[in-house]
Amino acid sequence: MALARLGNTRRSENFTWPGFVDALATLLMVIIFVLMVFVLIQANLAYRVSGQDATLGEMRQQLASLSELLNIERRASADLAADLAQLQIQLETSETDRSALAKQLALVQTTLSTRTSELTTLSAKQAETEAALATARDALDERLRALQMVEGQLALTEARNRTQQQTMRDLEVETTASKAEIAQMTLVLAGLRQRIEELKALLAEKDRQAEADKVAIANLGKSLNNALASRVQELQQFRSEFFGRLRDVLKGRDDVQIVGDRFVFQSEVLFAPGQANIGPTGQSQLAQLAVALADIAAKIPDDINWVLQVDGHTDNLPVRAGRYTDNWDLSTERALSVVRFLVSQGVPAKRLAATGYGEFQPLTNGDSVADRHLNRRIELKITQRVAAK
Description:
Elements: H1 2-7, H2 16-163, H3 172-250, E1 256-259, E2 262-266, H4 267-270, H5 280-299, E3 306-313, H6 327-344, E4 352-356, H7 369-375, E5 377-384
Helix pairs in contact: 2-3, 3-5
């Protein structure tokens, strides 16, 4: 441009336009420089922002991992809470079993007290027999002493008789009296000997009776201990056999649980929601249970007074308007339905009992769907009760 301007120095025209072009070119170069600086700054900022985005992504991944760990801990805490509730239920069941065993122990102690009273009576009789034997021995000793005295008197009389034979004629009256006395004393001696034999026979009889009483007392104690042990073992045997049969019948089912000495059916297995009529699936399960129960019932002796307790439980949701007043009414009707079905399958009615607890005996106090499902159940338990006298 400078050359152009030099070449054009000779022109006489106005040089305003070339200066304007130079200024405009300079301004354009400045703008390009500013744009380049701006682009460099934008590139630097973009690099820094991309680095911060990567860091933020890593932090978000760490936050997601921490959230997942927190959920795992929460689920573990829920599992621990469920295990704790299960342990509490088992503890309550153990307390119930301990109470039942305490009642049985009280009954056994009452029977043992009665047997002890009988043993005391037999011991008193034995003491009386021994006292009678001692009295008889004393009487026998007294009779023996009297006999010895009589024998001594008889010997003395015979000696006198031999010394007085020379004067027999003079003492015929006295001799006759002496002979009569001797005859009388002989009769007395014979009677004493007979009485002694009778006393000896009585003493031998009393000795035999005392030995028999001792044997009877020992046998009675052994019989009592054997009877008590046999009853306890027999009840335990039939209960174990009953539980074993039911485990075989109900094995492989997640909706049937064994809690202590109880079999727990979830209500959905037997009943539709809000209903007390047993469905086809529930009837099939209860029919198998009735077969096992009838088989075991035929083997249990009649003097073991057992009963199958059927307990109905519901969740804490109120019963809607219908034929049932409340959950208590619904749980009772469900238990009665199970009892009636078992009776129809041949189980004796006198061996069955039905109870409804409503929502007042829950397995868990939670309000979730799983908690309510767990609380809706039918429990079966075989137990023993004392017959009315």
